Amino acid sequence: MNGTGISNPTSVTLSTADSNPANNNNNGSPATFTASNPVPVVSASVALSSLAQNNHELVNVGLVAMASDGACPAPTTFSVQVFGDEDDQIPTDQNEVYSPDARDISIGILRLRAERVSSGDGRVYLIVVKATDAAGGAGFATTAVVAPKSTSAANVASANNQAAAAVAFANANNGNPPTGYFVIGDGPVIGQKQ
Fold this sequence. Notes:
This protein is mainly beta.
C-alpha cells in the first residue's frame, strides 16, 4: 500500500574478500523502506472542441483517454465527469428547453449539448477523466469543449480563454472545477432531443 513502511531482514554477501571481517554482523540487519505507488499518468482529448451555437443537439465530442502506470499494469477503469459554467437547463417550455446537457458520460461516447444561454458570453464544458490503479492510486486529465456566443473571432477567443482558465484551475486543484461550475448531465430529462 502506498506510504506503508515495510521491514525485512537482509543479508549481504561479497564477491571479493572482506578486509575486516570482525566488523560484520552475521545475524542480518533489518532494512526499512517505504512503498511508493506512483499514480497513473492520464491523458485526455476531444475530437470536437467547439460546438455550433444553439442547435440544441447532443453531439458526440470524440472523447479519448489513455493511462499508464509505470511498471504496473495500465488502469482499465476510467471515470468521466463533466462540469460547466452553465447548468443543465431548468424546465420552462418543453418546445424550447432540452436537458440534460451531457449524456453517455464515458470515453468514446460522451455527448454534449450544442447550446448556451442566449444572454451568456459562451459556454464551457470542463471534462475530467480519472483513472485508478489496483492499489488505489488515482490520476486525472482534463480537457474542454466550448460553445462560443457566436462565430466571431473575438467570441471564439473569449470562449477558448475561459476554457483554458478552467482547465488550468482543475489541473492545479486535483481535477476540481472552478467556483461557479456545475455538474452537467444530472438534470431532469426534458424535450425530445435526447
